[in-house]
Amino acid sequence: EAKAILATIGHKRTKDLYVGSVKTNIGHLEGAAGVAGVIKAVLTVERGVIPPNLWFEKLNPQITLPENVKIPIEPTPWSFDGPRRASINSFGFGGANAHVVLEDAASYFSRNGLNGKHSIASPPQRLTNGHVNGFTNGNGVHNDAKPKLFVVSSNDKEGVSRNVERLNSYLAFANSRSKHDFLGNLAYTLSTKRSVLPWKSFAIASSLEQLKSNLAPSSLSTPLRSSSTSDPRLAFVFTGQGAQW
């Protein structure tokens, strides 16, 4: 694969060519490996950030790469000074080979004189938050005012109030000068990085001041308990592709 890349698209190339693998991040997917590669490539083209290869330390000594062929080891901005193209190559166990070339929608629209919606990011000002264009030739704008959902849960009804008090104590040390992605990170952490417990309440806010106000006891939604309609059951899935069950 490396020799084929160097002999074709890597030959006499002036700009850096980045080579990566989705397997380093998610492991073997058997029949779905090609689809995972396409998903990674689409997100890379759209977001304008080339993801790193996980745990890469040194190159196989049997592979010689020229200086312009890189293996990313950290998130790398992908400039938008021309079409973004990604090539996905997937080998099947029995010798099948599938190849897909993707190009960003914005360049396609521009080259063909078309207008349309797309999700292509402008050159990232910083890797934690790219600017997104909603239309071709539009200006990317980061909108901090978008409402966000903040979820609080507990094992008992009174525990919700206690957790809200702790959250309010934490927010008391924050201010409007906090980094602009503070609310987004907080909403993400509360909804996906905390244990999901049966008693829940929530607040919706688009600013730090609004969040503090909506978390006040008089504004907070009444805690509700979620309950399953049936006992959980165990299921086994067999891939049918050999001994890898």
UniProtKB/TrEMBL annotation:
Alphabetically list the UniProt keywords. Answer: Phosphopantetheine, Phosphoprotein
The Gene Ontology terms for molecular function here are: fatty acid synthase activity
Q: Origin, by domain of life?
A: Eukaryota
- List the Gene3D superfamilies hit by this protein, alphabetically: 3.30.70.3290, 3.40.47.10, Malonyl-Coenzyme A Acyl Carrier Protein, domain 2
Q: Which Pfam families match?
A: KAsynt_C_assoc, Ketoacyl-synt_C
Q: Which GO terms describe its biological process?
A: fatty acid biosynthetic process; secondary metabolite biosynthetic process
What InterPro entries would the database entry show? Ac_transferase_dom_sf, Ketoacyl_synth_C, PKS_assoc, PKS_Beta-ketoAc_synthase_dom, PKS_NRPS_Biosynth_Enz, Thiolase-like
Q: Where is the Ketosynthase family 3 (KS3) domain?
A: 1-104
In terms of SUPFAM superfamilies, this protein maps to: Thiolase-like (SSF53901)
PANTHER family in the record: ASPERFURANONE POLYKETIDE SYNTHASE AFOG-RELATED, FATTY ACID SYNTHASE
Q: List the protein's name.
A: Putative polyketide synthase
Protein's organism: Phomopsis sp. BCC9451
